[in-house]
Amino acid sequence: QVQLVESGGGLVQAGDSLRLSCAASGRTLTRQSMGWFRQAPGKEREFVAAIRWSGDNMNYADSVKGRFTISRDNAKNTLYLQMNNLKPEDTAVYYCAADEYAYSWPPLRYAYWGQGTQVTVSS
Taking a C-beta distance cutoff of 8 angstroms, is the pair 6, 22 a contact? Predict the structure, then answer.
């Protein structure tokens, strides 16, 4: 059974940076593409970024392009999201997720989800 645990969230000021981590356990996810999503209060969950299982291709939402960077360390079975120049509208619970299927790009179906980590950006 796959478990994903996010960490690294917190309260920061606009313009600050944070790095989120997502540690996978239960089985290796080196063959699965993975992604980050977020959900702000009163809003639907939205896509933030995704990374190919091999780490050599990434997609970003327009709202974070140029500010956020997704990466992975397959040796550590860990996914990252570097967030720079944070804005108040980035405030949300951030979730990591993994594709159910191996070697697919873009991800076909996010079947595994973490519990989320809160990011709050004050103005």
Answer: yes
Q: Alpha helix locations (H) across the chain?
A: none
CB 49 within 8 A of CB 67: no
**Of 52, 36, 29, residue with least CA distance to 93:** 36
Q: How many CA atoms lie within 13 A of 101 on its CB side?
A: 7
What local confidence, expressed as pLDDT, does residue 13 receive? Answer: 98
Instruction: Quote the strand ranges of 45-86, DSSP E.
Output: 46-51, 58-60, 68-73, 78-83
**Of all residues in the chain, what percent carry a pLDDT higher than 90?**
94
Question: Which token pair is 91?
Answer: 């405030």
- The pLDDT tens digits for 79-91 are 999 999 999 999 9
70: nearest Cα among 91, 89, 84: 84
Could you tell me which residues are beta bridge partners of residue 49? 36, 60
Q: Which residue has the tokens 């960077």?
A: 69
Strand 92-102 versus strand 117-122 pairing type: antiparallel
